[in-house]
Design brief:
alpha+beta; Phosphorylase Kinase, domain 1; D-amino Acid Aminotransferase, Chain A, domain 1; 2 domains; 5-stranded antiparallel β-sheet; disordered C terminus
Length: about 250
């Protein structure tokens, strides 16, 4: 497809003007960052894999009635999404102690949580995405109390669904990050899931060995990062044995 005007470039994706009003093209890069951009690198084929994994998970969520910005995958690295007004809050759902939670509370990584915990972080790279409370979010007008209630309800529903889906493939969903946006249809507004769901935004461990199958392999220099992402895609049934090069090539978009 012809290259369109760039709207925004983030750490892992680029957004371009879509083919019709109210749409964007989301392009997945191989760039990898950690610790709020302090560590940078490249994971070969990551963009292709994340595009496929996120497509698969968004479609499955759509099937159970979770509204998302996803429309369809266009080619190996791009998908068509609805343009939404992003709520500047990252929603983190935790099922197991890991990452910053382990550091912050001095708890052993891998400790199961008594129940799923939701945390909120203000989306601001310059401030290193600080953790915030519901009070901050509503007081500063980032989201209304009603929107926050809906976000929490949907996040827990997504967690229930994805936990079961991943467990069926031998993967433990430790924690994950979600982003939400407001989708305007005339005067009507709907909160929808945006961004992506992939090994970039989830902690995924092998359910038997606890081997990490996500971006922590990059963060912690564990090696075999590409293989971990490929294994997630393979277990979800969306990656041919030959790897990303065997995936269906770009589609012509009309």
């Amino acid at each position: 497809m012809a290259r369109r005007r760039q709207i925004y470039e983030g750490k892992a994706k680029v957004l371009f003007e879509g083919p019709e009003p109210g749409t964007l093209v989301q392009y997945f890069k191989d760039d990898a960052t950690a610790f709020n951009n302090k560590k940078r690198g490249t994971i070969t084929g990551k963009g292709v894999l994340n595009n496929r994994i996120s497509e698969y998970l968004m479609v499955r969520l759509n099937e159970i009635g979770v509204f998302t910005h996803f429309v369809r995958r266009l080619n190996m690295r791009e998908q068509l999404v609805r343009e939404v007004e992003i709520i500047p809050v990252e929603v983190v759902v935790r099922n197991v102690v890991a990452g910053s939670l382990a550091t912050r509370l001095g708890m052993a990584e891998g400790t199961p949580l008594p129940r799923s915990i939701i945390e909120y972080y203000y989306k601001n790279d310059e401030l290193d995405d600080p953790m915030v409370s519901e009070e901050h979010i509503t007081a500063f007008g980032w989201a209304t109390p009603q929107e926050l209630d809906e976000i929490m309800s949907v996040a827990l529903r997504i967690n229930d669904f994805l936990t079961g889906l991943f467990l069926g493939t031998g993967i433990r969903l430790v924690d994950f990050k979600l982003e939400f946006g407001r989708l305007w249809e005339g005067e009507q507004m709907r909160i929808v899931l945006a961004d992506e769901i992939s090994p970039d935004s989830c902690r995924l461990w092998d359910s038997k060995t606890n081997e990490k199958m996500d971006k922590d392999r990059f963060r912690r220099d564990l090696g075999r990062v590409e293989e971990a992402y490929q294994e997630v895609a393979r277990r979800l049934g969306i990656l041919p044995e030959g790897g990303p090069r065997d995936m269906q090539g770009p589609k012509v978009m009309h």
